[in-house]
Amino acid sequence: MRIGKHGMLLGCGLAAATCGWAQRTERPNVILLVADDLGYGDLSCYGATRVHTPVVDSLARHGVRFTDMHACASTSTPSRYALLTGEYPFRRPGTDVAPGDAGMIIRPGQFTMAELFRQAGYKTAAIGKWHLGLGDKTGEQDWNAPLDITPRDIGFDYHYLMAATADRVPCVWIEDGRVCDWDANAPISVSYQHPFAGEPIAREHPEMLQLRSSHGHDQAIVNGIGRIGYMKGGGHALWRDEDIADSIVAHAVRYIEANRAEPFFLYLCTNDVHVPRMPNERFRGTSPMGLRGEAILQFDWTVGQISESLRRLGLDQNTLLIITSDNGPVLDDGYADRAWELAGSHNPSGPYRGGKYSAYEGGSAVPYIVYWPGKVPAGTTSDALASHIDLSRSLAQLLNQSVPADALPDSRALLAVMTGRSHRNCPFALTMPNNRSIVMRQDRWKLIPPSKGPKEAWQTHIELGYSSEPQLYDIDRYRYEGVNLAQKNPKVVNRMMQQLNRTLQGR
Ligand code: NG6
Ligand code: CA
Predict the structure, then answer these.
(1) Taking a C-beta distance cutoff of 8 angstroms, is the pair 347, 339 a contact?
(2) Is the dihedral of CA 499, 94, 33, 18 positive or negative?
(3) CATH architecture, domain 429-505
(4) Which distant-in-sequence residues (6+ apart) come within 8 Å of 317 by Cβ?
(5) Pairing of strands 319-325, 189-191
């Protein structure tokens, strides 16, 4: 296939519908595979040399690899909120990194990407890391009974999820609104306020730990790992961190097999490469970068299991597979797993400054690969500026679905861009760093408006990029934000500030 001068596939109009691309497509399955904290520089198809990811690289070689895709936040909860709801997280209080006992943040009635697929007659599932809250009220869940509000209420027919992250209690899987493999002999209690009498905690019992904390993560001990939050009970329902990837893959493959005959939407979120990095024993010793490198290899294996199942079931031609990450990378995120020392020359943010939590590009620039044989221009790279925010409405375009008036409020229908068939920049991309400020990309420019906050994120060594002065960077010239051009280009700063304010005030 040939790409025209302005990035359009020749012979095809702007919107997919106008050239019949979407209509001709027989209701494809869609798998949105979201890695956790996987950096722009963590895959070999994005330049990594100390770790090799042959499976993802092969999908990129036969699909489209994006070089300027942005998550909507530099941490999980707000990034995932925006991906699923098409609404920027800064519009919605309570979208910061959620504890494991957070009530469900997306409320029943709010339109989501899953609801969109359900409306189009798809089967829908969420498998893996969730981190968007479960149950009606924070801290009031009864983990020994069916939860009162679940992802079923926002469009997912099936779910198999960890409530938050692997470093937060409760350390159990939730399947269809109940703790999976619940143990009647070990009822579960969870608190983010107080420890439970008689339960050892990590800050008092470091000798019980198989992986020590470097900062935080000093409360409940589960599987010899200190967690955020206190927990009691669980028994045989407790996960073993070494088996998390296997459990996610097993449930995803089972789901794909069971739904092979009908169109399905699978929101599949890996725990890799979030902390605590505790990949399966079979990956140990396979990377010079230690546990973090092995977690990347386990991620690549996961992608391989999914794509192999699709091929085995004859579904790969009719499945749109999108691979991305929720936010930028971090080396030391609170466990002494030696990620920092063993990284060597590996830069998980690739060419970018900063990482997870940052206002700099390293916080939001994420890998994004679209694979769909015969449908997207195979073996191409898209340098278009693009944002996760546009995925939901672009998928509505793919499905030829209209959505309710107030649904997906910030998302724009850019199917051709989001599938690599147009290389046109999106109008602008907004991202929320950890201090809930807003940064903006527009064409080559990056604007970081003045905001308050520390220089570095805890003890992660990550530069956050907050400053009382406005910052403007030319990303086309220097992907590393080193030279502040704000004073030299006041007109660009003003124009972007105005756009930002318009977006904040209206829609
Ligand atoms: C931080 C945690 C970090 C990680 C992050 C959320 C500490 C010291 N740090 O507060 O380990 O869990 O939250 O990551 O507790 S995210 O990718 O899910 O947003
Ligand atoms: Ca994350």
Answers:
(1) no
(2) negative
(3) 2-Layer Sandwich (3.30)
(4) 373, 374
(5) unpaired
Residue tagged 């230690």 (tokens):
290
In the three-class reduction of DSSP (H, G, I as helix; E, B as strand; rest coil), residue 91 is classed as helix
Q: What are phi and psi of 275, to 5 degrees?
A: -75, 155
Number of residues assigned to the chain: 507
Cα 111 from chain centroid (whole Å): 19
Where are any strands of DSSP class E within 167-210?
173-175, 178-179, 189-191
Query: pLDDT tens digit string along 392-416?
Result: 999 999 999 999 999 999 999 999 9
The rounded Å distance from CA 165 to ligand 1 centre is: 8
Q: With beta carbons less than 8 A apart as the criterion, state whether 138 and 101 touch.
A: yes
pLDDT band at 22 (very low <50, low <70, confident <90, very high): low
DSSP strand pairing (264-269 vs 123-129) = parallel
The radius of gyration of the chain's CA atoms, rounded to the nearest angstrom, is 22
Question: pLDDT (tens digit, 9 = 90+) per residue, 229-241?
Answer: 999 999 999 999 9
Ligand 1 pocket test: which of 171, 228, 325, 337 has the largest number of ligand atoms within 8 Å of its C-beta? 228
CATH annotation of 2-384+393-418: 3.40.720.10
Distance between Cα 478 and ligand 1 center (Å): 29
Quick check: pTM over 0.90? Answer: yes
Note whether 358 and 433 are within 8 A (CB).
yes
Cα-Cα-Cα-Cα dihedral sign, residues 168, 170, 176, 177: negative
Q: For residue 333, how far is its CA from the centre of ligand 1 (angstroms)? A: 7
Tell me if 81 sits within 8 A of 132, measured CB to CB. Answer: yes
**DSSP-derived secondary structure letter, 185:** T
Asked if pLDDT for residue 14 goes beyond 90, the answer is no
Terminal-to-terminal C-alpha distance of the chain: 36
Average pLDDT, the chain: 95
CA atoms within 13 A on the CB side of 410: 26
Helix (H) or strand (E) holding 61: helix 54-61
The domain ranges of the chain are 2-384+393-418, 429-505
By CB atoms closer than 10 A (0-12, 13-18, 19+), residue 498 is exposed
174 bridge partner residues: 161, 179
